[in-house]
């Protein structure tokens, strides 16, 4: 005896709702009530219904794939962002393809071509620039794209970011309030927009306290632990003029500063204070626990996928966010790596 395959009609009958409501609950769950979603999910479990995703995608002329470009998949900063994006995409019936670009324009262009060949329906950029195929696309026909984490100057695509300048100001001001005046800044790569914004916040905080930024105390790194170690070794070797505090543009570089300080026999925070940026998992568990700017990374991912799904909604015109960019607030988390300026 051949077992009958459950259909969407069976689910609707069991749940006591219309077929259209079942379809919305499956493909646009945000537009139906929680009670209705629960009824539909219960009916699906009872009937054993399985959606034919491939057939639906063919019918709708879509791939069911969202492309996500990441500059370095090995960077722990991105883990919670990716999790927030994937969870939201999955709930909406999409799969996520992650492209690890390694900051190489050629790799970015290769992945972006997936949009033109209909291998992906939309894209989220975490790499801070438009791939060449999109940058050269005539205005008005760019496919659904959302920018997250790094703003792209001059680009009006929907964007979800933090206020990096304000966050850097807050981190530097914390050190100033502790009595530090010779504060070094370990920045990111000079070409990175995050570097521009965070250096600006650092400079503004110093200026607000009547201190002129000293170029010799600003060191360019690459967000890695190794670059933090190199920077700290260079800046701490001059015993008479070394900084008493460091504001670092990533937790990785801040951890590198602590490593170098310990190598030189310096105590953190008794001899030198250190502030990081991002609040990766290691920050709270390092020795000492790191004072840092907490980026709500999962929320960044959730906001990004929410904006993208709105742009993929074919029921009407593509909506624009109420504000652009969408600014997600940060928080300065004070732990044991900062203390009063040594006398």
TrEMBL record:
It comes from the Bacteria. InterPro entries: HTH_LacI (IPR000843), LacI/GalR-like_sensor (IPR046335), Lambda_DNA-bd_dom_sf (IPR010982), Peripla_BP_I (IPR028082). It holds the Pfam family Peripla_BP_3. Keywords: DNA-binding, Repressor, Transcription, Transcription regulation. The keyword Repressor applies. Gene3D superfamilies: 3.40.50.2300, lambda repressor-like DNA-binding domains (1.10.260.40). Residues 6-60 form the HTH lacI-type domain. PROSITE patterns: HTH_LACI_1 (PS00356), HTH_LACI_2 (PS50932). This is LacI family transcriptional regulator.
């Amino acid at each position: 005896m051949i077992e009958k395959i459950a259909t969407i009609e069976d689910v609707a009958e069991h749940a006591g709702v219309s077929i259209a409501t079942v379809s919305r609950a499956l493909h646009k769950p945000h537009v139906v009530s929680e009670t209705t979603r629960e009824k539909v999910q219960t009916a699906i479990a009872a009937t054993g219904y399985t959606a034919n995703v491939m057939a639906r995608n063919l019918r709708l002329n879509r791939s069911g794939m969202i492309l996500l470009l990441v500059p370095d998949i090995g960077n722990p900063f991105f883990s919670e962002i990716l999790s927030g994006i994937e969870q939201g995409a999955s709930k909406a019936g999409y799969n996520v393809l992650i492209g690890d670009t390694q900051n190489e324009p050629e790799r970015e262009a290769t992945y972006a071509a997936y949009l033109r060949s209909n291998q992906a329906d939309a894209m989220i950029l975490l790499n801070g620039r438009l791939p060449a195929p999109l940058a050269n696309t005539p205005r008005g026909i760019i496919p659904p794209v959302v920018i997250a984490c790094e703003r792209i100057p001059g680009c009006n695509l929907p964007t979800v970011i933090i206020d990096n300048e304000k966050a850097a100001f807050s981190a530097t001001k914390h050190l100033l309030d502790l009595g530090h005046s010779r504060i070094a800044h370990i920045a990111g790569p000079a070409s990175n927009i995050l570097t521009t914004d965070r250096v600006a916040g650092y400079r503004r905080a110093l200026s607000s306290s009547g201190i002129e930024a000293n170029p010799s105390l600003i060191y360019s790194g690459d967000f890695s632990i190794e670059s933090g170690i190199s920077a700290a070794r260079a800046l701490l070797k001059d015993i008479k003029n070394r900084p008493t505090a460091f504001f670092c543009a990533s937790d990785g570089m801040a951890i590198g500063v602590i490593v170098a300080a310990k190598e030189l026999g310096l105590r953190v925070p008794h001899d030198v204070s250190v502030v990081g940026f991002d609040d990766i998992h290691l920050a709270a568990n390092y020795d000492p626990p790191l004072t840092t700017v907490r980026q709500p990374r999962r929320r960044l991912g959730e906001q990004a996928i929410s904006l993208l799904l709105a742009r993929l909604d074919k029921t009407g015109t593509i909506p624009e966010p109420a504000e652009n960019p969408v600014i997600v607030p940060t928080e300065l988390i004070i732990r044991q790596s900062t203390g009063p300026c040594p006398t």
